[in-house]
Design brief:
The complex is a heterotrimer of chains A (551), B (394) and C (175).
Chain A lengths: L3 E2 L5 E2 L15 H5 L21 H10 L1 H17 L16 H21 L9 H31 L6 H5 L3 E6 L3 H14 L3 E5 L2 E6 L6 H18 L6 E9 L3 E3 L6 E12 L10 H7 L3 E13 L10 E10 L4 E3 L2 E22 L4 E9 L6 E5 L2 E9 L2 E5 L2 E4 L8 E7 L7 E6 L2 E4 L5 E21 L2 H20 L3 E7 L4 E8 L3 H14 L6 E2 L3 H12 L1
Antiparallel strand pairs in A: 1-2, 3-23, 3-24, 4-5, 5-22, 6-21, 7-8, 8-9, 9-10, 11-12, 12-13, 12-21, 14-15, 15-18, 16-17, 18-19, 19-20, 22-23
Helix pairs in contact in A: 2-5, 3-5, 5-8, 7-11, 8-10
Chain B lengths: L2 H29 L3 H6 L1 H28 L7 H23 L2 H18 L16 H31 L7 H29 L3 E6 L5 E6 L5 E2 L4 E2 L9 E2 L6 H25 L3 H10 L3 H35 L7 H23 L4 H23 L9
Parallel strand pairs in B: 3-5
Antiparallel strand pairs in B: 1-2, 1-4
Chain C lengths: L1 H26 L17 E3 L5 E3 L7 E7 L4 H19 L2 E7 L4 H11 L5 E3 L4 H6 L7 E5 L5 E5 L5 H10 L4
Parallel strand pairs in C: 3-4, 4-5
Antiparallel strand pairs in C: 1-2, 3-6, 6-7
The chains are: A alpha+beta (551), B mainly alpha (394), C alpha/beta (175).
Chain lengths: 551, 394, 175
């Protein structure tokens, strides 16, 4: 590819619109136009230079901002479609059976729901095409930035103070006229610009005043932040970088923490509090009246244990680490893991207390309490009276295959077979006792009568480990720095030149916020006699001034 | 001192101040003949003073309610929407002092007024915080996000002025149609306010039992005559009207009823306006927009996106992620509200790229700014009321 | 044309890395690693009903028939008599049956042992650490066939017939 040699002698890369050094328009189009396109300083974007191999073609595809914006719109549209119906992970379907999901969507949303499921929209954000779109977005960000930042950097460092008049003339803000004392104006302008905190360079009767050039790098900094963020998201796929598990743990239970081998959690106590009208002043009274009880806090008091170094899974060889009350918004944190309070269930049966009654006298001969989670075999009531627990069904489900059966190990519907040994019946009387039901083989003299029950709560916890969090945070911070840098600092340049005779030329450019640039110019004009400039894009300003003048 | 009552009064004061402020800005635009008189008119100065009084009153509402509730008043639909309108006015005041443009006030204040009126239709009692909201991140995240959104909204206001001025309303065109459609939407919101207020003043109530989408029996009270009944509904209040249609379980028939009443009232309002003035609303507004400098409006539109975008990113995405990680154990969960915040962000990112490298300025940019505001409002209104997710506390 | 080659190389490399990243994103799974056939069976230490500590590594050099079960699980109840029936003869052939109950009460497990007359070691996984974290057992019953080198030969996640049990035990019999 040949270089383009400008009249000033500078060699520009192929594709350059404005000479990197003096600013002369190099293309026919630029020469004919009244105003030149100053994006990327008219430098040669690399993508435009070579269009030969497949790699170059792919490169050029991703380098295009048009393609970039199209990808953004595509992500936007697919994301929006994903919110029409609940996504897979919010659907209350247990297990992974696809037909159940189909059934769910069809039942609730009819044919449209069925289609939504079949098109895979029900799991939009985990679909391959969504991931590919995000990947393409990342690719576009990297390539488009690389292709622009390098030429921009080159042309901003190479720019010369004295620009060619043809460059000045083609700026959006431009003015030229004769002034009475060009030298005085020139010096005053230089001083005024310095007072406005511009970096002023003077060369051969020309001023280049520049401010906030670093704002130009903002977009590239924020793109770097986005790439760091996407990289962090990608790294969660590396084994061991990311853990996401849930566990239910009842009061009094100790369980190994899923996803965190070697760590055990004991649920010491779980409690739920609601706002009561009394303590919450009159302020919340109305809301409580309207909505009923509002939960104020739920909390798991837990103890954390760790298996001792070198001990095996399952061994009871553990050491205590810490005690902590987990509430919503205050997770328990240890060794890179966090445990969150997510959910709870109250009122699961814990113990049941019975009284042994003499049926005839209707007198109690003693009481006994059964721990439903760790029942004992024998209960001594004294005076030669005792109860033997023969069988226990935690979640009694009727008779299956000729035997009483339990459908789960959770005491939802406890049933017992007691052998009641009394002085009258030293061998015992057998009785089957379930909730609201007592069966006897033969009529017994005694019966175990349900007195009371204690319940306990189960706490729903989520266990997370995410080694990428700091990477994500870094990405976020870098993005914010870049976006603030690019948005809140505008790169302004003012060129002032002495022309032939007593003529002076003035031109200015900024990447954004022309209003303040013009204000700056007006301030300079207050102290230095300079040509009146026009903003070529503001067609109405002319009308306004003439109106003002006729007044 | 009863802060809660004081708070309500202050909000009323600000509401009235904004109404008065609008009139003064209207005067400023009407009487000015030149750029200079337009910028320095007495009317405009009074307008901004009244607006500032209103803003301070609303800030007072915010602070006293904060004291009364013990938490930042941004925890339900009424509170958030009101805070949003307050910040919208705050952003306008800021921009006004940079650019001195009464036209902006003439358009921004009515929008703030409509938003406050809309907010007031939701339950206004002070609610205690549910566990998930008990965090200082509630204050940080919601206030920053609302601030970002309100600055972005200023861009839409500037865009609207640009369009009202530059769209040729004498000829039939797509642009004319859509501009009028935007105006109609505002009237629709007024329709909602008018119908809700009317029925609530009349004390209308109709109780129903119905079966929800999970097959559970539930109860519901309508505050408007029930046009649509919930799935398998049964009337509890007998002297009220019988719904015209029964809806399937996934449709919230009460919301639909409210919507249809608002639409109905809105259409009547719109027809009345057309009958009285015999012109489209956009044409009514055009003379007020004419005084604004197009280039300046374009610049304000762009500038407010530039100022608002970083604030929005920080509040609605970064702070949101940090909090979501603390409260829900994951920084991102594709909850509809989260997704729509992302959509808003992507939209403004596209806006900036189109403007920077495709040269989308003037009308195109103005349309995009208006569309951005529509997305923000969609996230506030539709996502909260229709697509319920974790954020639906209101 | 050296410069051109260099450019092509750099672009190609960048595109390749990005493509690899996308492919990684598509293929990586966030799910926890599940034990598979061919993996080394993780060692553990649990107590039997007499309070004696039992380690998997105690049976090095033998085949281990590791059965996870619950008293409330109907298929567990059905297969248990057959496992008991053949456990004795296979003990002599170098195959040891270990059964792990998932976190139930001693009372329930003891009653069950009495009812079915079980003679092999029965261990209770109180904290569910072995079943959930080490072995990731989801359905009950689950049976792991571990050979003399401690390598998992087969994983059965359903009820087994008598014939199946025999052939599975044979499959891990040391030579």
């Amino acid at each position: 590819m040949s270089k383009i040699k400008c009249q000033c002698g500078h060699e520009n890369p192929f594709g350059t619109v404005l000479c990197e050094k003096c600013g002369r328009p190099l293309t026919d189009e630029a020469q004919k136009s009244e105003m030149v396109d100053m994006r990327y300083e008219g430098s040669a974007r690399r993508s435009q230079t070579y269009k030969k191999s497949v790699i170059d073609k792919i490169w050029n595809f991703f380098s295009s901002v048009k393609i970039g914006v199209s990808i953004i719109i595509a992500v936007l549209a697919t994301s929006a479609i994903g919110t029409i119906f609940p996504q897979k992970f919010y659907v209350p379907v247990s297990g992974n059976d696809p037909s159940e999901y189909l059934e769910y969507y069809e039942r609730l949303y009819g044919t449209v729901g069925k289609l939504y499921y079949q098109l895979g929209f029900y799991d939009m954000y985990n679909s391959w095409w969504f991931k590919v779109l995000i990947g393409m977005l990342g690719t576009s960000i990297i390539i488009a930035s690389l292709d622009r930042v390098i030429p921009l950097y080159k042309s901003l460092t190479k720019q010369r103070t004295k620009r060619h008049p043809s460059f000045m003339k083609r700026q959006r803000i431009y003015g030229a006229s004769n002034v009475s004392d060009p030298d005085e104006s020139f010096n005053n302008a230089e001083k005024a610009l310095k007072d406005l905190h511009y970096k002023v360079k003077v060369e051969d009767g020309a001023i280049l005043a520049e401010k906030n050039r670093f704002g130009r790098w903002g977009p590239y900094v924020n793109h770097t932040g986005l790439i760091i963020f996407l990289l962090g998201v990608l790294m969660r796929g590396i084994p061991g970088f990311y853990v996401d598990e849930t566990m239910w743990i009842r009061e009094g239970e100790t369980r190994e923490i899923p996803g965190a081998p070697g760590y055990l959690l004991e649920n010491v106590d779980f409690s739920v509090e609601t706002y009561s009208k009394g303590e919450a002043d009159e302020v919340f009274g109305e809301a409580i009246d309207n909505n009923g009880a509002i939960v104020s806090e739920f909390k798991s008091d837990v103890k954390l244990y760790k298996e001792k170094e070198g001990s095996l899974p399952g061994s009871s060889d553990v050491e205590f680490m810490k005690e902590y009350p987990i509430i919503v918004n205050k997770p328990l944190k240890f060794d890179g893991y966090s445990i969150f309070q997510m959910d709870y269930k109250t009122g699961e049966l814990k113990t049941m207390t019975f009284s042994l009654m003499n049926k005839k006298t209707e007198q109690s001969v003693g009481e006994f309490t059964i721990d439903l989670n760790e029942p004992a075999k024998d209960y001594d009531l004294g005076n030669g009276t005792s109860i033997e627990l023969m069988e226990y069904y935690a979640d009694y489900d009727g008779i299956v295959d000729g035997q009483p059966s339990s459908k789960s190990p959770i005491p939802n519907n406890p049933a017992f077979i007691f052998n009641m040994k009394t002085p009258e019946h030293p061998d015992g009387e057998k009785s089957f006792v379930a909730i609201r039901q007592t069966l006897e083989v033969e009529p017994n003299d005694y019966e175990a009568k349900f007195l009371s029950a204690e319940t306990r709560d189960a706490s729903g916890l989520t266990i997370r480990k995410d080694k990428t969090l700091y990477i994500l945070l870094l990405g976020g911070i870098v993005f914010m720095i870049g976006v603030i840098q690019g948005s809140y600092w505008q790169h302004r340049r003012i060129w002032i030149q002495k022309g032939s005779g007593s003529e002076m030329l003035i031109a200015a450019h900024t990447n954004k916020n022309w209003y303040t640039l013009k204000k700056d110019l007006d301030k300079v004009k207050e102290v230095a006699t300079l040509p009146t400039y026009t903003d070529k894009q503001d067609k109405e300003a002319v009308i306004d001034t003439t109106e003002g003048e006729t007044k | 001192m009863d802060y809660a009552a004081l708070s309500a009064n202050l909000l009323l004061v600000s509401f009235i101040a904004y109404l008065v402020g609008t009139l003064f800005f209207g005067g400023a635009v009407k009487v000015s003949k030149t750029e200079k008189t337009y910028k320095d008119s007495m009317w405009g100065k009074i307008g901004i003073v009244v607006t500032i009084i209103g803003f301070v009153a609303q800030l007072g509402y915010f602070i006293t309610r904060w004291i009364a509730a013990g938490h930042a008043p941004v925890s339900n639909m009424f509170e958030f929407t009101t805070a949003f309108s307050m910040m919208l006015v705050g952003s306008f005041i800021l921009i006004f002092f940079i650019y001195k443009t009464p036209s902006l006030g003439l358009f921004a204040l009515p929008i703030a007024i409509v938003i406050i009126a809309y907010a007031s239709m939701f339950p206004r009692e002070i609610t205690p915080l549910i566990p998930a909201l008990k965090s200082y991140w509630l204050t940080v995240h919601v206030i920053t996000a609302a601030l970002g959104e309100s600055i972005l909204a200023i861009s839409a206001v500037a865009g609207l002025i640009y369009l009202a001025k530059n769209v040729d309303l004498t000829k039939k065109s797509k642009e004319r149609f859509w501009l009028e459609a935007v105006m109609f939407t505002v009237v629709l919101v007024l329709g909602f306010v008018v119908s809700s207020t009317a029925f609530s003043l009349s004390g209308y109530e109709a109780d129903f039992t119905y079966v929800d989408k999970n097959g559970k029996a539930s109860e519901m009270t309508y505050n408007m005559p029930p046009l649509f009944g919930m799935s398998e509904y049964e009337q509890v209040t007998t002297d009220t009207m019988k719904p015209w249609f029964e809806m399937p379980a996934i449709v919230n028939a009460k919301t639909l009823t409210t919507f249809v009443w608002s639409l109905f009232t809105g259409i009547i309002l719109y027809i009345l306006i057309r009958l009285i003035f015999r012109r489209p609303i956009a044409a009514l507004l055009q003379p007020f927009a004419k005084k604004a400098n197009s280039q300046l409006m374009d610049e304000i539109g762009y500038r407010s996106v530039l100022i608002g975008f970083p604030v929005f990113t920080l509040g609605a995405l970064i702070f949101a992620m940090i909090w979501a990680h603390e409260a829900w154990s994951r920084f991102w969960g594709w909850d509809p509200k989260e997704v729509w915040a992302l959509i808003t962000w992507l939209f403004y990112a596209a806006f900036l790229h189109l403007r920077l490298s495709q040269g989308w300025e003037g009308k195109k940019s103005a349309w995009l700014a208006v569309a951005g505001f529509v997305i923000i409002m969609f996230n506030l209104v539709a996502v909260n009321l229709i697509i319920a997710g974790l954020h639906s506390y209101a | 044309m050296d410069k051109k080659k260099k450019r092509l190389f750099i672009r190609g490399a960048i595109l390749l890395v990005l493509a690899a990243a996308i492919i990684f994103a598509l293929t990586s799974k966030k799910e926890t690693k599940v034990l598979a056939v061919g993996d080394k069976a993780p060692n553990f230490e649990l107590q039997d009903m007499n309070g004696k500590k039992v380690k998997l590594s105690d049976y090095e050099g033998q085949g281990v028939f590791l059965n996870f079960w619950g008293t409330w699980c109907p298929p567990c109840k059905k297969e248990m008599p057959y496992i008991e029936k053949h456990s004795k003869e296979f003990t002599n052939k170098g195959v040891q049956v270990l059964s792990v109950n998932i976190g139930e009460s001693e009372f329930k497990v003891n009653t069950f042992i009495d009812q079915y007359g079980l003679t092999f070691p029965v261990l209770i996984d109180k904290n569910k650490s072995v079943s959930r974290n080490s072995y990731n057992v989801v359905p009950l019953p689950t049976t792991m066939l571990i050979d003399k080198n401690g390598v998992i030969k087969q994983i059965v996640t359903r009820e087994m017939s008598e014939a199946e049990i025999v052939s599975l035990m044979e499959s891990i019999q040391p030579e």
